[in-house]
Amino acid sequence: MLQKSVVALALFSLTLTAQTRPPVPPTLIPGYQAIQESRLRADLTFLASDALEGRLSLQKGDSAAIEWLVSEFTKAGLKPAVGISYLQPVDLIEYRGDRARGYVTLHRAGTEKRWAFPDAYGSFVSDVDVTAPVVFAGFGITAPELKYDDYAGLDARGKIVILFDHEPQEANAASVFNGTGNTRYATTRVKVLNAQAHGALAVLIVAEPNRKHPSNQERAARIGGSVTRAVPLPSQVLADDEQHIPSAVISDAVARELMSGSGTTPAEAQAVIDLDLKPQSRALPDTAVTVHFRNQSETTGRTWNVAGLLEGSDPKLKAETIIISAHHDHDGISGNEIWHGADDNGSGTVGVVALAHAFMANRERPKRSILFVVFASEERGLLGAFHMAAHPLRPLETTRAMINFDMIGRNEEPSDQTTGLIEIPASTTNRLNLIGALYSPDYQRAVERANKTVGLDLDDRFDHEAALNVFFRSDQFPFVLHNIPAFWWFTGFHPDYHHTSDTAEKINYAKMANILRLAYLTAFDFAGDKPVPKFVESPRPPAH
Fold first, then answer.
1. Which residues pair with residue 460 across a beta bridge?
2. Residue 539 has what pLDDT?
3. What pTM was estimated for this model as a whole?
């Protein structure tokens, strides 16, 4: 009898909570109700099926996913966003590096010392032979708004630059570099492009010597799955990529030897920078390096971003854009093993399609336009997103917000990648992680307003940690680089991440549907006539 009473009380509490939530505005109910678990399950079961062979970029399974997306955008009634087409071409170069033939050589005092994998390694889109003097550029960051520049007074022209991964002071909650989280400057691509802008010929990257977490390479190795497959995944780059110089990863020991005789060690240099943000950059005397890479193969190919437009109803505001996005590719097939990619990112792809149908089911149209995009080749380096950010279908300066879905279908669970690096709540069955909030508190508040109706548990943990590099790992990031308020909506990592076992039957469809309902309400908020969310170029950690 007592047990029945407890159950009844719990059901009464849930009913009361639902009754006290603000209702869905009557004009938005048709689209809200159009988001159904049964449709999500059917679509995702298809996308993650054996027939699509893991949707590897440039392979036939991903081509089938692209055709399906065009069909769904057509059925929903979206306008083609690329002239008369839904397809934006993304030209790629695919290559396979030959690690066995790559090396880095130190030239000093008339002698040479050579390092190969695992002490020094990398790859580039074409064969590389670069020999040049070496300079040390700290963390490789130029951040004028933070009054920090590792290149101030350093001549990197015609040089090879050695620099630290990550950012200064990442264990300091009060750091101007977003406290214990990451800013846009922490990622390798931004650092390499900055070195290139300063005239460098190549970059040597070493994990920061005083780190309290695994290096990026050690973290990636924890994932297993795609990382340890018998035939490594091919690398891909944009055919018109703005990055033109190679980079190599070097070990702590190699970095120490390169910097010997410079008046400091890597650990000492980091300690001084972390203390008061005073750069320790310098030329390394009598130190030159050769970076030598070779490829097994190089081919070209074309994939596609899929984009449909819901034009806004307001004559003036329809020129402004809200983006709702995901990516359609995953890690393909190897022998008899298929990387199904149900959560990553079949869930996000199906989510964009579901929202396209939901918005078009609604009689009331948003005042601003909504661009529904499913990007190509995210798993190979956010390539489709970088391409669209460089070749936008609608002006970036009038793009007001971006909702990016990447893995919105599972409950977060402990895994080898996250163990010891981030705390996972005891219950994640109703939890949604929002990544990027410190760059737009206005955006965060808009989601929180809409969530009063939906009732998800919202989480910002990933904005306050640096070990997992989450901020850079999905398609919202290229748009953040253009000062667009852009969040990654994410339900978290789990043991099936980038494994063949990421399959459709493991998806929490009830939570996925609620996440999409929240995104529907939030997007209508963004696309209305309210003030748009502001972008914060230099976020500061919240005061405690």
1. none
2. 78
3. 0.95
